[in-house]
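Hey,
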Amino acid sequence: MAVLPMAEYDCLVAAAESADDLRVYDEAKRRLTSGGDEAIPSEYAKRLIAGESPIRVWREYRGMSGRNLAGLAGVSAAFLSQLETGAREGKAGPMRRIAKALGVALSDLILE
């Protein structure tokens, strides 16, 4: 057991939190430089955070039309539109193909 003034304890806690933040930052930077993650402009990130359809956001970020993405993913444009509007939920196979066509991980297309 150690006894120390509260101000010193608060400084130690703040330093530990800063060290943890630095570890998280360093890991994110490592993933970016190794190609494991991708930085996207804030306007697209904000749309994803707001809950907009990840398929639509990534498609627009990639500069793709709905028809183009549908063709690359082997789904109909109507089905893709229904996924983007939330009218339908995608099954694993089509969602994997859409993710591959967009160049993102399947988990990037799933809202939680």
